[in-house]
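Translate structure to sequence.
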């Protein structure tokens, strides 16, 4: 049974929503965030990545950074840019990208359900990244970046969402990247109860994106619980900000790879090793991958199509048959010597939103030696792996569009 709990959100007034809404903290470097927030004091990047307001020599994890984030958040509240709703509510958050719209229910998910695996994960987390977000939550006393959850489609929930979104929006703006963001408030107690009952009949929720933020919410929630001798279980720190989308509406893009060198191999040696596992075809122009098991390879200004054998695509283990696993086990590790892509400095990852042109640019500049384009992981693969209690390899999924920070803020007390 999954919990989706109403809460009193702090939200930007409609006239400020477009200025406040910002990309998640973890998709921009500090320098990129500085450029993106330049000239916009209302951007939520001043809260999510507050190092942009300090001297660049300061460590992004210095205590002064989190203190500045708290100060910046309070400033938006004092200026009445962010205003608290009068009572607990659920919300609908819609994103439209290239003519496709996804509709999510915004509410609070349960820390306890994250810990008992009612909310399922598919990625490992890193302690340093967990601690960064823990410190952000501890100091700002808030969840300001929503966790991206998904659930199996439910036609009754869809009907409720359709009814809500047939009404005028509370916030509606198109961001500079062309993505439209809309929000509706669900105030009716009967509708809220109905949605809670429907989610109560859903066995599992799944973390699509935001594993480090979810882990941080759980860690801080447990800390608050242990520190409170009068803990009841209904305090706000027991819940975290989330947006729940039906699985069929989500879009996963390719998550591509670039590698610095051929690990000492000549071109001929490299291709000879490739052909032990993959069929290799030289192609004209950029590849259009049509199915699982196909990879694009860009090397010396030329594109090649790699195809994996069916035997690798039909393994019983859902992790073993992932394209990212096949690539790691049969190319990156044995041929290029990339043993652990999480720490190896010779490999980098490029989200599919940047296009194949970015791969060509990284190679043609001489920064990287080769690029590999991937067929996107499917949401069904993600759910199968989470249900099996297994972990996806790093950098397996890139969801678009990204949820924006600042449209909903949840305080821990």
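Result:
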């Amino acid at each position: 049974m999954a919990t989706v709990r109403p809460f009193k959100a702090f939200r930007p007034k409609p006239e400020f929503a477009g200025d406040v809404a910002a990309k998640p903290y973890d998709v921009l470097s500090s320098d990129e965030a500085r450029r993106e927030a330049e000239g916009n004091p209302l951007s939520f990047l001043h809260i999510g990545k507050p190092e942009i307001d300090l001297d660049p020599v300061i460590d992004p994890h210095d205590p002064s950074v989190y203190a500045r984030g708290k100060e910046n958040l309070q400033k938006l509240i004092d200026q009445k840019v962010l205003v608290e709703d009068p009572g607990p509510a659920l919300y609908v958050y819609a994103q439209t990208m290239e003519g496709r719209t996804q509709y999510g229910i915004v509410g609070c998910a349960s820390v306890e359900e994250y810990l008992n695996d009612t909310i399922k994960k598919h990625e490992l987390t890193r302690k340093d990244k967990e601690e960064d977000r823990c410190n952000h939550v501890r100091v700002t006393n808030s969840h300001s970046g929503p966790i991206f959850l998904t659930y199996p489609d439910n036609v009754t929930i869809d009907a409720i969402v359709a009814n809500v979104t047939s009404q005028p929006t509370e916030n509606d703006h198109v961001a500079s990247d062309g993505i439209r963001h809309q929000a509706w408030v669900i105030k009716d107690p009967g509708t809220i109860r109905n949605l809670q009952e429907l989610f109560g009949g859903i066995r599992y929720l799944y973390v699509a994106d935001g594993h480090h933020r979810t882990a941080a919410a759980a860690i801080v929630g447990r800390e608050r619980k242990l520190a409170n001798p009068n803990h009841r279980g209904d305090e706000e720190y027991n819940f975290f900000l989330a947006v729940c989308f039906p699985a069929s509406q989500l879009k996963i893009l390719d998550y591509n790879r670039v590698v610095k060198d051929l690990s000492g191999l000549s071109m001929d040696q490299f291709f000879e090793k490739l052909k032990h596992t993959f069929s290799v075809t030289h192609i004209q122009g950029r590849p259009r991958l049509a199915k699982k098991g196909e990879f694009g390879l860009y090397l010396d200004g030329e594109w090649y199509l790699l195809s994996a054998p069916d035997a690798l695509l039909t393994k019983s283990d859902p992790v073993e048959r992932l394209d990212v696993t096949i690539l790691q086990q049969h190319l990156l590790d044995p041929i290029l010597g990339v043993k652990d892509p999480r720490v190896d400095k010779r490999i980098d990852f490029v989200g599919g939103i940047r296009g194949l042109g970015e791969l060509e640019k990284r190679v043609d500049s001489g920064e990287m030696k080769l690029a590999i384009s991937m067929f996107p992981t499917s949401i069904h693969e993600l759910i199968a792996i989470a249900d099996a209690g297994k972990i996806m390899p790093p950098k397996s999924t890139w969801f678009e569009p990204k949820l924006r920070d600042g449209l909903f803020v949840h305080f821990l007390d």
